[in-house]
Amino acid sequence: MKSLIVYCSSHGTTEKVVGLLSENLVGEVLSVDLKREKTIFDVKDFDTVIIGGSIHAGQIQRRIKKFIQNHHEELLEKELGLFLVCMRDGEMAIDQFNNAFPQELRKNSVVMGLFGGEFLVSKMNFFERQVVKKVDGITKDQSKLDLNAIKEFTSRLNNLKSLV
Q1: Would you report the helix, strand and coil content of the chain in percent, each value rounded to 5?
Q2: Are 153 and 22 within 8 A, CB to CB?
């Protein structure tokens, strides 16, 4: 089984999550950061497609949205996993997830995950630091990654693969 993970990582948290997913998924895994990498791939070559990103100013990255638009029909035919890295929890996190991914993809996905997040103030530019300070009162690095949610996500995907 071949899995593709497409994601965008601004400060490294989503990349860290993708590393954990890649380490724990069964089979061949290709991970592509749409923001940095120019890896050429064809979605048709993969059994499973996992899409993830992080929330900045209430929105998932534009490149994730564009990837979903460009491959929407193909994605509906795949074993699909969706995940979001964000510092919000509860209803607000669910709202951000629902806003990030189209309803049709959410309905067709076999696994979805909210993985918590990090404020890596040390990696932010001046503007980002000011926004995070004003909106959340955060002035130093903080982590709320949910390692159990990441482990559960990969476990559910691996169980589905073992049934095939």
Answers
A1: 50, 25, 30
A2: no
- Mean pLDDT in order along the chain per 10 residues (164 residues): 92 91 95 88 95 87 95 95 91 94 96 87 77 77 88 92 61
pTM: 0.88
Q: What is the pLDDT of residue 162?
A: 65
pLDDT at 63: 94
Burial of residue 4 (CB within 10 Å: 0-12, 13-18, 19+) is: buried
In this structure, the strands spanning 48-56 and 59-60 are antiparallel
**Within 10 Å of residue 113's Cβ, how many Cβ atoms?**
24
Q: How far apart are CA 138 and CA 40, in angstroms?
A: 38
Four-point Cα dihedral 79, 1, 52, 68, nearest 10:
-50
Distance CA 37, CA 132 (A): 27
CB 121, CB 74: distance < 8 Å: no
Write phi, then psi, for 112 (nearest 5 degrees).
Answer: -135, 145
